[in-house]
Amino acid sequence: MLYIIGLGLGDQRDITLRGLEAVKECEKIYIEAYTSLLSFGLSADGLSTLEKLYGKPLTLADRETVEEKADAVLAEAQGSNVAFLVVGDPFGATTHTDLVVRARKLGIDVKVVHNASVMNAVGVCGLQLYRYGETVSIPFFTETWRPDSFYEKIQRNRALGLHTLCLLDIRVKEPSLESLCRGKKLYEPPRYMTINTAIEQLLEVEQVCRESAYSEDTECVGFARLGSEDQMIVAGSMKQLLTLDFGEPLHCLVIVGKTHPVEDEMLEFYKLGGDGTQKKDNGIL
Amino acid sequence: MLYIIGLGLGDQRDITLRGLEAVKECEKIYIEAYTSLLSFGLSADGLSTLEKLYGKPLTLADRETVEEKADAVLAEAQGSNVAFLVVGDPFGATTHTDLVVRARKLGIDVKVVHNASVMNAVGVCGLQLYRYGETVSIPFFTETWRPDSFYEKIQRNRALGLHTLCLLDIRVKEPSLESLCRGKKLYEPPRYMTINTAIEQLLEVEQVCRESAYSEDTECVGFARLGSEDQMIVAGSMKQLLTLDFGEPLHCLVIVGKTHPVEDEMLEFYKLGGDGTQKKDNGIL
């Protein structure tokens, strides 16, 4: 049996009782390491907070493990209970669908334990989830690679009055260009896109495309560490948010569409100088 | 302090450890009753499963309590810790934003505990969440009220190749027309729209609008009791799904847009006669 278990967004306490029960039934526990694990108490010396809670050791599954060693992981799941722990919800990201498909093709039972993901937790800012259009991803620009496919999608959402969730790039355990050239595996340090970088890139693309999909005056909501005790949520124009330091990752950004009165009322709490942003804990447990 | 705590989708074991800790700190616990509580072990004799787990009594908060008696609930939260439990995630539905706004205006601290909602858990079928367009709601048609605003939205999503999540109507504790006329409060029995009714209404609207937004051959995924142990997920054309009995509520429906290969591979498991639909537990814990 392969269990794919969502850990939620904040820390070790965000696992569900169902998820914890399943973990305890497993002989081997992998935890995915392609997204941020910072808030889950994972330090250099290992996965102490989670391991203490589960009462057993964890194996960090980086991209390499999952993509290259999936067969070995799945072989284990044929003879015993294996858990694969995922930050957020198992299907909030694309990465896990492929693992499930491979498991099922091998006839391995797969059980899923859901949890909160960024895709639904952004609802906390008051913008209604059914008023969002297509989600976009903002990748890190490089000297030579500055893709702007998100521009058209944002433009379309805004023309329809819909909000746009922008997922910001995460680069964890990326082979360095130098190491690829030399045939040796060396990794870049992890990089997480900040709200500031995302807005800079968005405005740069607007400067190039010049179709007024949005501007520096466009209302947005910036989220840092959503679901954690020290989450930071601020509503303001792109220009305003550019001046802020949102601190540690993960960050994401919502570009606000046409709002209803109850959405406006909630956003007020998150505006600069508003009630929400003055509080240290910013309305989250 | 007002805690708004998501219970997740399945049963009492879907609360998070963080949520359970918060419940235990509260003197008064309300549980919302406008969506389905069937799977949470709530029978006529009270909220036994949850009350046993929490070690304290619950108060059922129907629409009336929240809309008419919110002031009383909030007054309690000014002097003590009050929990408001919500099926799914607190902000998966619109209902709770208003409560939060009112609380904050009164200066009451609000803390949110996130959980899975239908909006992200539909990811289990393999269709990627970032490939969804605007979510639509399908309301129960009556003799005289047959709104079709969802049609245009579905058409737009499909033109862009995006999937569409259809949330199906729930009518809990609706005053009966007769009782409204007589000035007495009598309620209709609860009604939950089935996938079959949703598809019938969708096809009826297509017959009226005739713009080929979709047809009886359009690929869909039907979900019943998503996140529960006896969930049922089947992929097939509207025509095929119309022949099935999905059983107890809640149901929801996804109209499939343009798919990527990995999405197709996952959908295969849920097709009629496929691997997923043959299994009793259908891939969920």
UniProtKB/TrEMBL annotation, chains A, B:
Pathway: Protein modification; peptidyl-diphthamide biosynthesis. The keyword Methyltransferase applies. SUPFAM superfamilies: Tetrapyrrole methylase. It catalyses: 2-[(3S)-amino-3-carboxypropyl]-L-histidyl-[translation elongation factor 2] + 4 S-adenosyl-L-methionine = diphthine methyl ester-[translation elongation factor 2] + 4 S-adenosyl-L-homocysteine + 3 H(+). It comes from the Eukaryota. GO terms for molecular function: diphthine methyl ester synthase activity. Residues 1-241 form the Tetrapyrrole methylase domain. One of its GO terms (biological process) is protein histidyl modification to diphthamide. It is an enzyme of class 2 (transferase). Keywords: Methyltransferase, S-adenosyl-L-methionine, Transferase. S-adenosyl-L-methionine binds at L9, D89, G92, S117, V118, L168, L226, H251. Pfam families: TP_methylase. Belongs to the diphthine synthase family. S-adenosyl-L-methionine-dependent methyltransferase that catalyzes four methylations of the modified target histidine residue in translation elongation factor 2 (EF-2), to form an intermediate called diphthine methyl ester. The four successive methylation reactions represent the second step of diphthamide biosynthesis. This is diphthine methyl ester synthase. It comes from Tripterygium wilfordii. The lineage of its organism: Eukaryota, Viridiplantae, Streptophyta, Embryophyta, Tracheophyta.
